[in-house]
Design brief:
single chain, 254 residues, alpha+beta, 10-stranded mixed sheet, 3-stranded antiparallel sheet, 4 helices
């Protein structure tokens, strides 16, 4: 009886280890590569140029022929970089690969980088990744309203006949860390203008579910209710273009 019990426990452990190994060695959609990295903050705390150089080193991509597709950046309420996802084309003699990179960081600035490649048949007219990352690096995000949860920066990979300037947002040019108001910007279908959205995380307003807990000597009690929160009037909602984007635009009105 005892030997059967030991055999059962061993079999269960072996199965668990196999499942863990399967999860760590790559399932469908998992990155091709993953490594640990440590970044040192620059003067403003967001070392995007160093991050780009790290991406080039790890992925083996060529800086001169890199073409930006899209990016997502999460900045914490303290202004620290939490997460960055970047897609760009790496052109070479045989064609081009679309490279997808994810970076995540902990408060001590240690983090992980993972990446994968996929063959791409076409590469649009777009920007170099540093055209955007280099300008964002010069922004002092302490001057922006970080909101209750920080900021989300989205670089869109949308193409088409798209115009900007008539929405519920501030439209600006970002150059050398300075924001300059714009009235209108529009693009032709063959150009990827790479608009940069800067949005406050949290503070959107609306119905919010709140759970209150109480601990007594012999029992634990929870009460859940819904309340309405007003939107944060200072919540950032900005559409940004860098000079290289405006150079590709079909029209710009200051």
């Amino acid at each position: 009886m005892e030997s059967s019990r030991i055999l059962y426990v061993c079999s269960a452990l072996a199965l668990a280890l196999c499942l863990i190994a399967a999860g760590c060695t790559g399932l469908a959609g998992a990155p091709d590569h993953k490594e640990t990295i440590i970044l040192q903050p620059n003067a403003l705390g967001l070392p995007f140029t160093e991050i780009w150089n790290t991406i080039l080193e790890k992925t083996g991509a060529t800086n001169e022929t890199a073409v930006l597709n899209s990016a997502d950046i999460m900045i914490g309420v303290d202004g620290s970089l939490e997460w960055l996802s970047l897609e760009f084309w790496d052109e070479n003699e045989d064609g081009a690969d679309l490279v997808h990179v994810d970076l995540s960081f902990s408060p001590d600035r240690s983090g992980t980088i993972s990446w994968s490649r996929a063959i791409s048949e076409t590469v649009p007219v777009s920007l170099h990744p540093l055209d955007v990352l280099g300008e964002l690096e010069q922004v002092d995000f302490a001057d922006l309203h970080l909101g209750t949860e920080g900021l989300w920066i989205e670089v869109s990979g949308t193409r088409g006949s798209i115009g900007y300037g008539n929405g519920n947002y501030d439209l600006v040019l970002l150059e050398n860390g300075t924001f300059t108001p714009l009235r209108e910007v529009w693009f032709t279908p063959d150009v990827q203008g790479c608009p940069i959205g800067i949005y406050g995380r949290g503070g959107q307003g609306g119905n919010v579910t709140i759970t209150e807990t109480s601990d007594f000597l012999f029992w634990h009690e929870e009460k859940t209710y819904t309340t309405y929160e007003e939107p944060d009037p200072e919540r950032e909602n900005i559409i940004v273009f860098v000079p290289e984007s405006l150079a590709m635009a079909d029209g710009v009105v200051f």
